[in-house]
Write a structure and sequence with these properties.
heterodimer; A: 148 residues; 75% helix; B: 2 domains; 9 helices
């Protein structure tokens, strides 16, 4: 490998001026690496260009039919719902349902006074029980002292 | 004229005209088929791959600018599809030098020493194409696209940059890297061949 090898890409892209191109042509006669590189690329190009996979005669018709059918299905399923009129109608329906539900007089409240009153009563009654228990303890201790 | 015809066919296709889209497919299927073959290689589902490109195009038809030529647009869709596929596949069957018969090894060896190779005159061209595809397998998807567009299809660097969505300098770097990788891999093949010969 020598300094001229760096011109490989520019030679390949036909971007060297006449003098440099002639120099690189001389270089190719001496440099195995560049010469086999050029040959390889030429041959790869030829081999790949020669390759083709034929498509059936009905390919274009079949593809067009599938494309149109697929588009109709997709349109019916999803895209139609994204169209402004239908989307706004759906949104308005949901919004009205929500408002009506929130303002309904038949709505069952999640916690009302009844529950609150039960809690207060329970609280009071437990307080009374504790008080009665304490009085009982004082009374019994006093009586125990008298007995002794 | 061709551009106008394409634009008219697109217009009619957008209106749901199946025959118009079939015409559009027919006009460009050769280009798409070649691009797909050159990037993905010969495979049993080649027709499915080409069809997928046109289905993607149909779904994006509304975004196509009818003042521009259709060919670069559809070839960009084909290229992007192939890049997705190459990324998805990652690994495939790798054809080795030793998979070739001895006579084919000799002919391929001669091929790297002779620039005047006429593949159409050779028997068993498919075998050579498999080797070529195998050589390209180590290239990254965008390097592969760059190599095929520049070396095989002789496209300009600006067109390449436009298709890949990179700068022209970036396109040059990718082509250069692809060339170097291919040469290195081929040299490795030859080195293996040399050992087998001894």
């Amino acid at each position: 490998m020598n300094g001229l090898c760096k011109w490989f890409d520019r030679y390949r892209d036909d971007e060297l001026d006449g003098g440099r191109r002639a120099l690189f042509d001389l270089h190719l006669k001496q440099c195995d690496r560049c010469r086999s590189g050029i040959a390889l690329l030429n041959n790869l190009r030829a081999v790949i260009q020669a390759g083709a996979v034929p498509l059936s005669d009905s390919f274009s018709r079949n593809t067009a039919r599938i494309a149109v059918q697929q588009n109709e299905t997709w349109d019916a399923m999803v895209v139609s719902w994204l169209r402004p009129a239908r989307a706004w109608l759906a949104f308005a329906t949901v919004l009205v349902s929500f408002i009506l539900g929130a303002l309904s007089p038949f709505r069952t409240p999640s916690a009302d006074y009844g529950d609150y009153e039960v809690l207060v009563t329970l609280n009071d009654s437990s307080g009374m029980i504790l008080q009665a228990y304490a009085e009982e303890m004082i009374y019994s201790s006093e009586h125990e002292g008298v007995n002794q | 004229m061709t551009q106008t015809e394409d634009a008219l066919l697109v217009e009619r296709s957008l209106g749901g005209d199946e025959l118009a889209f079939a015409d559009l497919v027919h006009r460009h299927q050769r280009l798409v088929s070649r691009r797909v073959y050159r990037l993905l290689g010969r495979s049993l589902d080649h027709a499915d791959a080409v069809q997928e490109v046109f289905l993607r195009a149909y779904n994006s038809l509304r975004r196509y600018d009818r003042n521009r030529p259709f060919e670069p647009w559809i070839s960009r869709i084909a290229t992007n599809y192939c890049i997705d596929e190459l990324r998805r596949r990652k690994s495939g069957k790798v054809m080795l030098w030793t998979d070739l018969e001895e006579g084919e090894q000799h002919r391929l060896l001669a091929m790297s020493r002779n620039g005047d190779f006429e593949p159409l005159l050779l028997e068993g061209i498919e075998k050579y194409q498999e080797v070529a595809m195998s050589l390209m397998q180590d290239l990254r998807p965008k390097e592969r696209v760059a190599f095929v567009m520049r070396e095989v299809e002789n496209r300009s660097y600006s067109e390449l940059a436009g298709t890949l969505g990179i700068s022209e300098l970036g396109a040059r770097i990718r082509v250069s890297r692809a060339r170097k990788k291919l040469q290195a891999k081929f040299q490795a093949y030859l080195a293996g061949f040399g050992k087998l010969e001894r």
